UniProtKB/TrEMBL annotation:
Gene3D superfamilies: N-(1-d-carboxylethyl)-l-norvaline Dehydrogenase, domain 2 (1.10.1040.10), NAD(P)-binding Rossmann-like Domain (3.40.50.720)
Keyword Nucleotide-binding: no
Start and end residues of each 6-phosphogluconate dehydrogenase NADP-binding domain: 9-169
Keyword Ligase set for record: no
Family per record: Belongs to the HIBADH-related family. NP60 subfamily.
Protein purpose: Catalyzes the NADPH-dependent reduction of glyoxylate to glycolate as well as succinic semialdehyde (SSA) to gamma-hydroxybutyrate in vitro. May function in redox homeostasis and play a role in oxidative stress tolerance by detoxifying glyoxylate and SSA generated in glycolate metabolism and GABA metabolism, respectively.
UniProt-recorded name of the protein: Putative oxidoreductase GLYR1
Native species: Tetrabaena socialis
UniProt catalytic activity: glycolate + NADP(+) = glyoxylate + NADPH + H(+); 4-hydroxybutanoate + NADP(+) = succinate semialdehyde + NADPH + H(+)
Catalytic machinery residues: 178
Amino acid sequence: MADATKLSVGFVGLGIMGEAMARNLLKSGLFSSVTVWNRTLSKCDALVAEGALSAPTPADVVAACDVTFGMLADPEAALAAVFNEGGVLAGISAGKGYVDMSTVDEATSTKIGEAVTAKGGKFVEGPVSGSKKPAIDGQLVIMGAGDKELYELVQPAFAVMGKKSFYLGATGAAARMKLVVNMVMGSMMGAFCEGMALADKSGLEQTALLEILGLGAMANPMFAMKGPGIMQRAYPPAFPLKHQQKDLRLALALGDALNQPLPVAAAANEAYKTAKALGRGDQDFAAVYEATQK
Ligand code: NAP
């Protein structure tokens, strides 16, 4: 029998990240039920087979749960899941919580937060750092902002999905932090791929470059993890390139709004756009290497 003191939780958006995060909520046994929805409904099947409930619309998920988490592709998807007919908003009533963990811009997050709050609900934004593997391992870093009470309430869920969560302030702060983090990451990966390309063109072994980078102050898990795939030009998606380009686009818009020059990120964004135009959008963001090979 379900423990009445346990929260019932929902999850909307079962992509690469959402499915793994929802599975960790389910496996934890901490919640009285886990109810899931995905636009392509068949993606609910695996979790249902493992014990989750599924619902036909986001509104039904929210209606059935104390707190619902969202993990959608981009601002358009995050807004659609909330405002479309049968969306999150239609299920919100007083006391219910919605935690949007998608990477979106502040305006999107604020619009969702205001709509949820206007119906008596509570809203937290909780974008994450960490990719497919950390999502599977429950090792994400969660950037939280918005309703502090809801943030505290969902700490057990954040502890299952992540290794650390931060409360950064009013809605918008976590969205901005996440964009800054991914702007740095996208620029780093762009610079790394250019280095790999120049090494190769100038007759150097890319394995030697990887090893030399790995032994100095520039050593980082990302170069070590993505380097071998780049050498094989194989990019199974952990973080889809189209999402990295979206994050650079949103970070540059934030820079524009604040008149903050971002020349390095702007140049990196062009490389991701080129890779997208080469048909690499659904591959891992390391496929930005292909932009160096045209
Ligand atoms: P993904 O695999 O592409 O999944 C995207 C999800 O959004 C799917 O559930 C998709 O549904 C849904 N979706 C897309 N358009 C929609 C719409 N119009 N209405 C409703 N649902 C829609 O992406 P992901 O890698 O899991 O990333 C999800 C979010 O996390 C993104 O904001 C991304 O930037 C962020 N993030 C990703 C990573 C990573 O390494 N992958 C790391 C940190 C943060 P369908 O299945 O029907 O297409």
